[in-house]
From TrEMBL:
It holds the Pfam family LacI. The lineage of its organism: Bacteria, Pseudomonadati, Bacteroidota, Cytophagia, Cytophagales. SUPFAM superfamilies: lambda repressor-like DNA-binding domains, Periplasmic binding protein-like I. Gene3D superfamilies: 3.40.50.2300, lambda repressor-like DNA-binding domains. One of its GO terms (molecular function) is DNA-binding transcription factor activity. PANTHER family: HTH-TYPE TRANSCRIPTIONAL REGULATOR GALS, LACI-RELATED TRANSCRIPTIONAL REPRESSOR. InterPro entries: HTH_LacI, LacI/GalR-like_sensor, Lambda_DNA-bd_dom_sf, Peripla_BP_I. Keywords: DNA-binding, Transcription, Transcription regulation. Residues 4-58 form the HTH lacI-type domain. The keyword Cytoplasm does not apply. This is LacI family transcriptional regulator.
Amino acid sequence: MEAITIKDIARALNLSTSTVSRALRDSYEINPETKRLVIEYAERLNYRPNPIALSLKENRSRVIGVIVPQIANNFFSNVINGIEAIAYSRGYYVIIFQSHESYERELATVQQVVDRKADGLLISLSSSTSDVSHLRLLQEKKLPIVLFDRVSSELAIPSVTADNFGGAFAATEHLILTGRRRIAHVTIPPYISITQERLAGYRAALEKYGIAYDEQLVRYASFGESEIGPIIDELLTQSPDAFFAASDRLAIGCLAALKKRNIAIPEAVSLIGFTNTPLADLLAPPMSTVEQPALEIGQTAAGHLIDLIEGKSGQLNSETVRIPTRLILRASS
């Protein structure tokens, strides 16, 4: 089936092509009845703008580049769903890249975004990215960029994250209010922004209830499954009565390691994660966790980026949007 064009619509409705074009753009110059006729006819024949023609006319590709550490991660998959929903509704398409938690891969994928002439970039930093000069260079070249989830305070760039501090505070406070005092915190590499924010929330809850912060109860892990067992063994020497993990992936690893060592959950120790993976409710016992609003993060980040691309958000230069989290209590705590 041949794609219908603006000329076809104009011919069928006995209008000029410029009138049809302006009606489809919702121009104030076209009266409402003409707009209604044009839009109804276009929808009935499934009219879609020609992306190549649009990009030539507007000097835009109508494409957004998205870089995530890993697609095979429920959180990032849901973020991408949110990004794509907003992008499609506003006439943009999305190309997705993975850094696989590698700084070198991140550099290469950022260059791919530039080479493909994307109109803007949405990026969540890899766990090995501490140098953000590659993004600063793009910023100097006026490429619209929005950071999400894992961000950098070194860049004056709009950012969208969950309220990591608030979520960690709520999780730790819940453990304290249920009588726990030796709360271990298993977290991800220390230079990632979400690590710092969640650790700060954990420490603030301890301080509120007069519990001294103990560095011996905090351990940093990367994303390797083999790390968790030795970390649990080290922490058990400190007699913890609860574990707060900075991600559900780590929390599931803690759950498996504790069960392997015949430590009853929640009788001997409580456990809380952070993300709310779909598996959390299916575990034995079902796992308490902090829900990270992935879809909303994606939608908000995409909306901000498109506003920047279209020149609608001059005030967003370094704004950070923090979307509220929600503590979900299950049997593990």
